């Protein structure tokens, strides 16, 4: 049933009405108050003219209420990430037929919509659960027919600047959340701190649905409070401070955030002692970084997933973990492997892309990732199918592997490795700071010592700017857009190979 999540919350509201469900900076909601807020707003949505609604809010308890109220009212909700460019926002609105936007940034969105020639019909203000937000209704957006049963559309960047809309059902989201609850052993005593934006599907699902199903508490504070600003700026002291102040027992980090956390603790910052489960996802993570984290006593568990599979496919856990793997498939997942090693997934998968359900005729979804299951049932990934290149000596190189090793060095923030049909590999390097520039040569030499000769970096160039979603050189979930980076630096790379 597509109200399984809401029905579960109603039972919890009866069982533990005064337990804290959502905690923000200026507001808190018990389980009883959460259901009351969901019901209050759901009533107004019964006669709401919009079927497809965009949600553009900072992390807060209000985000959870509006998300769950839309679910309860059978509306299609589309989280709009803060890191999307104005062009990507406008594309998403037209692509999915968003006719209404809920936001806490009314002035910014009013300007953005008008600049994109999207006509504003009405601007309304609402108050729900003691928090206010703005509703902007659009009058010239053409309605779209989405796959039947679509309750949420999550946008994932492909190889172009236009993100792709992945349509998901309530049953699929609930199934993945239930599997994650079982694998992470969620309990009512858990305190989950959302550090990633709730507009990312992973945090939406594992930072709201899973803790609430456990009867636990979600700490949903503005991103600035956890040290995040823009798409790549982090104040690690703020992040650590919030982990300590909330006594967080669970959280989700990207590899870059984990690296910052590890370095800070290695330099003497007290580790958050209450943490029992740190899920690592969004991009591949180096085994050496995980080993450093384990040495500090950090309970880190790498996982793997993609939007088309409702975010999570496999995850290591407290009871079943294998360093170097992305864990065992979740209980609802079935895996197969193509002849070339591509991972194929069945189970809870998407309904189709916006305007295109044809891809869903396949019983197993091709992930684009190369991997294998070991004898114990752990999934290992060796690289992206489309990213593996072959050197002129016939050696296959997974650039993600080399990049993970490079970015372990304190001097290197980001790296993009190339070498297709070349005798040796080159890298485009983003230094961690201007002061780190002199250390780049030594960093590459240290990395080369742990790599086989065919994977080593022989020459490199310094990037003009960091790889960011805003400049089209990175996807919102942290994957490099290699074609874009290669086009940007093609002449400089060619010069490295010049005789």
Main attributes of the structure:
26% strand; Rossmann fold; GMP Synthetase, Chain A, domain 3; alpha/beta; globular; 499 residues; nine-stranded mixed β-sheet; five-stranded mixed β-sheet
Q: Quickly give the structural class.
A: alpha/beta
Strand order of the largest sheet: 2-1-11-10-14-15-16-17-18
CATH architecture descriptor of the largest domain: 3-Layer(aba) Sandwich
Q: Count the DSSP helices.
A: 13
CA gyration radius, whole angstroms: 23 Å
3D shape? globular
Give the rounded overall mean pLDDT.
92
The termini sit apart by 66 Å
Summed up, the domain count is: 2
Fold and architecture overview:
- The protein has 2 domains: 4-373, ANL, N-terminal domain (Rossmann fold), CATH 3.40.50.12780; 389-497, GMP Synthetase, Chain A, domain 3 (2-Layer Sandwich), CATH 3.30.300.30.
- The protein is 30% helix and 26% strand.
- The chain contains 13 helices and 28 strands.
- A 9-stranded mixed sheet has the order 2-1-11-10-14-15-16-17-18, sandwiched between helices. A 5-stranded mixed sheet has the order 4-3-5-7-6. Strands 19-20-22-23 form a 4-stranded antiparallel sheet.
- Helix 2 (31-45) crosses helix 3 (61-72) and helix 6 (170-184) packs across helix 7.
- The radius of gyration is 23 Å and the shape is globular.
- 49% of the residues are buried.
How would you sum up this structure in a few lines?
By secondary structure, the protein is of the alpha/beta class.
């Amino acid at each position: 049933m597509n109200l399984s999540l809401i029905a579960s919350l109603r039972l919890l509201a009866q069982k533990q009405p005064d337990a804290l469900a959502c905690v923000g900076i200026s507001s808190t909601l018990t389980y009883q108050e959460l259901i009351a807020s969901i019901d209050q707003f759901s009533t107004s949505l019964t006669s709401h003219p919009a079927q497809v609604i965009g949600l553009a809010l900072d992390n807060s308890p209000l985000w959870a209420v509006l998300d769950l109220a839309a679910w309860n009212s059978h509306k299609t909700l589309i989280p709009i990430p803060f890191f999307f460019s104005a062009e990507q926002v406008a594309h998403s609105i037209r692509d999915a037929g968003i006719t209404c936007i809920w936001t806490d940034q009314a002035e910014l969105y009013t300007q953005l919509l008008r600049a994109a020639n999207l006509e504003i019909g009405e601007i309304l203000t609402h108050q729900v659960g003691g928090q206010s937000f703005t509703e902007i209704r659009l009058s010239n957006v053409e309605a779209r027919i989405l796959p039947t049963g679509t309750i949420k559309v999550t946008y994932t960047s492909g190889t172009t600047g236009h993100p792709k809309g992945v349509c998901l059902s309530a049953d699929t989201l609930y199934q993945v959340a239930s599997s994650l609850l079982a694998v992470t052993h969620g309990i009512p005593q858990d305190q989950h701190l959302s550090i990633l934006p709730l507009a990312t599907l992973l945090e939406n699902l594992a930072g709201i649905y899973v803790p609430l199903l456990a009867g636990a508490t979600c700490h949903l504070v503005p991103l600035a409070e956890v040290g995040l600003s823009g798409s790549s700026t982090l104040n690690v002291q703020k992040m650590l401070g919030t982990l300590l102040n909330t006594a967080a027992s669970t959280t989700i980090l990207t590899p870059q955030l984990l690296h910052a956390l590890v370095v800070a603790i290695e330099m003497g910052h007290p580790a958050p002692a209450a943490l029992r489960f740190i899920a690592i996802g969004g991009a591949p993570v180096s085994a050496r970084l995980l080993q450093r984290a384990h040495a500090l006593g950090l309970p880190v568990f790498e996982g793997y997933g993609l939007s088309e599979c409702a975010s999570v496919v496999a995850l290591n856990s407290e009871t079943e973990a294998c360093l170097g793997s992305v864990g065992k498939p979740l209980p609802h997942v079935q895996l197969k492997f193509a002849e070339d090693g591509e991972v194929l997934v069945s189970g809870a998968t998407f309904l189709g892309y916006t305007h295109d359900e044809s891809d869903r005729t396949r019983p197993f979804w091709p992930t684009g990732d190369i991997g294998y299951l070991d004898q114990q049932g752990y999934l290992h990934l060796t690289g992206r199918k489309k990213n593996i290149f072959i050197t002129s000596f016939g050696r296959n190189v997974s650039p993600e592997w080399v990049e993970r090793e490079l970015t372990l060095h304190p001097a290197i923030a980001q790296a993009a490795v190339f070498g297709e049909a070349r005798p040796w590999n080159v890298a485009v390097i983003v230094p961690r700071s201007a002061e780190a520039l002199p250390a780049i040569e030594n960093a590459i030499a240290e990395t080369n010592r742990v790599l086989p000769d065919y994977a080593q970096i022989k020459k490199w160039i310094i990037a003009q700017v960091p790889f960011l979603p805003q400049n089209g050189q990175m996807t919102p979930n942290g994957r490099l857009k290699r074609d874009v980076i290669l086009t940007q630096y093609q002449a400089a790379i060619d010069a490295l190979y010049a005789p």
